[in-house]
Amino acid sequence: MNSREMILAAVRANAPKPERPLPAVPTFDDNAPADLIEAFEHMLTRMGGRLLSRDPVRDVQAAVQPLLAHSRVVCSATPEIAGSLDLSAAPAARMLADVDHGVLRASCGIAETGSVLLTDRDLKVNALAYLAQHLIVLLDPAEIVANIHHAYARPEFRQMPYAVLHSGPSATADIEGVLILGAQGVRSLTVVLARPS
Asked: Coil, helix or strand for 3?
């Protein structure tokens, strides 16, 4: 052990370890929407995304197939939809450069922002959420929470190495206020309400 390692080990061993509990964070439920799906759809649409239907689909394959009709390369991170590119065979992000549609299942949705929570478990390869031209997200309607505070209380933010909130497709606006969707990332984000099989 060199002197640097000895000093750092001594600092770690002697560092104070206060047993202070984390502060309680309120969930701000006073203004929770009565209909979470309606609120989620409203905010998702405002962010440039779309909800395929407010009613959960029974046959995911049949619901998603029209969206994939003109896709050359489909990469699916969920067993509910078959893709033409196998994620287990393409672990490097550069292999996803030609993906037309990425399909995955989100951990949860947030009504307040129209966002979906995606983790490394959901994506398999994190770059799928950014390199695909179009993203189709399957979401269990029972996993829609009222606001961001409920989302941050979920275990994904403490247990998963990677977690990100997506709110619609990539967007930018120039100085004149012209909104461009799909400027640096996915060009469209479609959410399909579907209970897990």
From this structure: helix
Which class for 56: exposed (0-12), middle (13-18), buried (19 or more C-beta within 10 A)?
Answer: middle
Q: Is 80 inside any structural domain? A: yes
Placement of tokens 């393409």 in the chain? 90
Give tens-digit pLDDT for 88-122.
765 677 788 889 999 999 999 999 999 999 999 99
CB of 131 within 8 A of CB of 96? yes
Token readout for 37 is: 């799906």
Token pair recorded at residue 24: 């309680």
Q: Rounded to the nearest 5°, which phi and psi values hold at 145?
A: -105, 160
| Spatial CB neighbours of 185, under 8 Å, sequence gap ≥ 6 | 129, 130, 169, 170
Residue 137's CB is within 10 A of a number of other CB atoms, namely 24
Q: How many CB atoms are located within 10 Å of the residue 103 CB?
A: 28
The total number of residues shown for the chain amounts to 197
pLDDT band at 19 (very low <50, low <70, confident <90, very high): confident
Structure confidence by residue, pLDDT tens digits, 42-67:
999 999 999 999 999 999 999 999 99
CATH code at position 97? 3.40.50.10420
Asked if residue 181 has pLDDT above 90, the reply is no
Look at residue 16 and tell me whether its pLDDT is greater than 80.
Answer: yes
Measured distance CA(172)–CA(119) in Å, rounded: 24
Could you tell me the residue range of the domain that residue 121 belongs to? 36-193
